[in-house]
Amino acid sequence: MSHRISWKLAWRNFKAHRRLNLPYVFAIALMLALEFVMVSLIDNHYIQTRHQVLPTIMKLGCLIGGILSVIFILYAENFSQKQRKAEMGLYTILGLENKHIRRMLAKERLIKTALVVPIAVLEGYLIGSLMFLLLNRMMNETGVPLMEYPFSLIAAGVVVSLYLGLQVLLRLQTLWQLHHLKPVDWLQASRRGEKEPNGNLMLGILGLGLLILGYVKANQSGNLFNSIPIFFLATLLVIAGTYLIFTSLSIWGLKALKRRPNFYYKKAHFLSLSGMLYRMKANAVSLASIAILSTGVILTLGLTLSLYRNMNQAGDQVLEREYLLEEANLDIPSEAAKELLDQGIQQVTERVMISNGFFHQSLQTIAYLQDGVLHEVPLNAQGKSDVQGFYLLVEDLASYQARTNEHVELAANEILLASNRPDLELPQEIELANQHYKVKAPAKKMASWNMAVDSLAIVVPEGSDLKQVQASYRMADLGADHLSENPINYRYFFDAQGDLQDLNLVSDDLLQKGLVLYSRQQMKRELYSVNGGLLYLGVLVSVILMMGIGLLLYYKQLSEGLSDQINYNIMKRVGLDEGMIKQTIRSQILWIFILPLIAAMVHTLAAWRLVFGTLQTILLVNDQVLIISSILIIVLAFILVYLVFYLMSSGVYYRLVNQDNSPNNK
User: Fold this and answer.
1) Which regions span the lipid bilayer (predicted)?
2) How far, in Å, CA of 383 to CA of 389, rounded?
3) CA-to-CA distance for 233 and 210, rounded, in angstroms?
């Protein structure tokens, strides 16, 4: 057979099987396109600059996404090859030699590759660009600078290499089958059902053990950024455990139901249970993949929504008044800072009318807590991870009352104390600056918790106590060989009436004198510019995962429908009415719909400490009610979207199985 003839045969076969090949091409291309977007995000400028470990997290995400892509491609390829086995046997009987079939199949694979690769790269770039354009438009009013999405040659190379590498392996598998199988084996293979899988209880127990170990490891890491290797190991353990449970325990459970005659020999149960067992091996892999992707969607969107809602709340509470005036250079002496602040206030009052103003003095330093005593951190211990230090945010009672509008009375030996660590048991008495204090009550409106480290907020009775804390807890400047006192920060909060444009004009003059004027709107814009990109990333990754779920659901229903056509036609011929067919389909849909959701809910619940730790220490979200409500909102929304996906894809399945493709009806 010449190359020209083999090309013609390959192209004719591709067109003849377009109902099978076109979904394959577009499904694989879309899966690779999603991987393209994930890989391209690694080199994105925002991700490179937002946090030092964020690129590593993205690389691990790409690796996990690549694993899922490989599983999906192998699943799709296995289904496609099974549909063609009888055709291969027929070619052999008609006189084609193995080398001719190999040549023809190689060219068919080249045709698919020529379609999949450019479509995948183009789709990936268009999806990424469209999402960035949409999110930039949505965030335009917040003042966040636009994020760019340049074309990534590295991402294109990774996607092409991944697909070509798999095609080489699949080509070797095809060559092995052509060499070892006889024509009669090919002819019978397409009509031979898969052997009923055996539920291996030991593998199921192993999967359960891996799952529990993964949960433990994930919670040991504390937060997503704290220990990347532990988090990655936990993720792999959970993925492996999920696949083993779905492929082993699920089959074992179905066989246990089959052994119950009162359950199994009912019409609806008999058909649906037999169908699930018959194809459970393929179903289990896809269901496990859907469960993993669903968990990723819920966790990613839960983090994103919590961050977004917290940003809105923090934006409204970022300043106690509309404006804040403070010294730009914190190293100047306290008396000079007070005098400079008074001059600035005088200059502002010449431009606008000030109301609701108040002075505020506070101190920020570090200490470590041991046996109810706050100690100064020695010079040789600062910056070391083995010292359990706390960041202290200290203010006097007058400043606290002015800031919160709360009336609190403190005796000379009493303080207010709170921490951003919910697991920290605060002492009833504490030694601070060599003085013994009673902790009166944790305050609800302590200093701002926009800190990514363990912190203590303290309210002392008088300004003199604040100065005593300043002298008792010194810090070392970067590169310094000695400890020095941190300056007390003096600030003035106020509202303003009048022509507020005048404040913008006076702002430059104040800056030249060493004072900075902040507005609430300006602080909100800065808050959005710092965390706005994480919103981009969260929404983008979630959309990618949702598309992957939809793709798995659609292709799974398509492949199952094509496989089950003959079986359901036989059922109709032996007298099974259409109503029973629909009931059987609904029963199987219920199984397939519920199982991944249950697994995703369990994974999400097990990852709760990891989610809260990440939000608290990195994304600065400390409101547990906000986090829980955000997760619940995402779970409900996801269930609705998932239900829509499955109803649409099950319609495809139902139409396929009701097509009569028997020879007598062609």
Assistant:
1) 21-42, 54-75, 110-133, 153-172, 201-218, 230-254, 284-308, 533-555, 589-612, 624-648
2) 9
3) 11
Residue 311: which of 491, 650, 538 has the closest Cα?
538
Question: Is the per-residue pLDDT at 480 higher than 70?
Answer: no
Q: How does pLDDT run across 594-634, given as a tens digit for each residue?
A: 888 899 999 988 887 777 777 766 566 667 788 888 889 99
Range of the structural domain that residue 76 is part of: 1-192
Q: Are 591 and 268 in contact (CB under 8 A)?
A: no
Query: Is-contact 307 545, C-beta < 8 A?
Result: no
Token output for 243: 């696949």
Mean pLDDT for the chain? 78
Q: What is the rounded CA–CA span in Å between residue 257 and residue 277?
A: 11
Domain boundary among 174, 192, 210: 192
Extract the tokens encoding 133. Answer: 């354009």
More confident residue, 662 or 266: 266
3-state DSSP assignment of residue 424: coil
- 147 inside domain: yes
Q: What does the pLDDT read at residue 103? A: 83
Burial label, 507 (beta-carbon count in 10 A; 0-12, 13-18, 19+)? middle
Residue 659, pLDDT > 80, answer no
517 and 494 Cβ atoms separated by less than 8 Å: no
Q: How many domains does the chain have?
A: 2
How far apart, in whole angstroms, are the C-alpha atoms of residue 429 and residue 61?
46
Q: 192: helix, coil or strand?
A: coil
pLDDT greater than 90 at residue 394: yes
Percent of the chain with pLDDT over 90: 11
- DSSP for 377-417, written as a single string: PPGGGTT-TTS-EEEEEEEEHHHHHHHH-------TTEEEE
The answer to whether residue 662 scores a pLDDT higher than 50 is: no
* pLDDT the model gives residue 591: 74
Helices within 405-519 (DSSP H only): 463-472, 501-512
pLDDT band at 22 (very low <50, low <70, confident <90, very high): confident
What pLDDT is recorded for position 243? Answer: 87
Q: Which residue has the tokens 């008044």?
A: 321
Confidence of residue 58 (pLDDT cuts 50, 70, 90): confident
Where a domain ends, among 472, 497, 522? 497
Nearest CA to 555 out of 20, 5, 3 is that of: 20
| Structural tokens at position 394 | 């200290």
Nearest to 522 by CA among 540, 502, 534, 507: 507
**Distance between terminal CA atoms of the chain?**
32
One-letter amino acid for residue 96 of the chain: L
DSSP letters spanning 594-627: HHHHHHHHHHHHHTHHHHHHHHHHTS----HHHH
Using the 8-state DSSP alphabet, how is residue 249 labeled? I
Specify the amino acid at residue 529.
S
Q: Is residue 550 part of a domain?
A: no
pLDDT confidence band for 666 (50 / 70 / 90): very low
Establish if 51 belongs to a structural domain.
Answer: yes
The answer to whether the CB of 216 falls within 8 A of the CB of 178 is: no
Residue 345 maps to a domain = no
Residues in contact with 167: Cβ distance below 8 Å, sequence separation at least 6, in sequence order:
109, 113
Q: Which of 516, 588, 605, 559 is nearest to 219 (CA)?
A: 605
Length of the chain equals: 666
Interatomic CA distance for residues 452 and 614, integer angstroms: 10
Torsion-angle region of 320 (φ positive above 0: left; ψ -120 to 50: alpha; else: beta): alpha
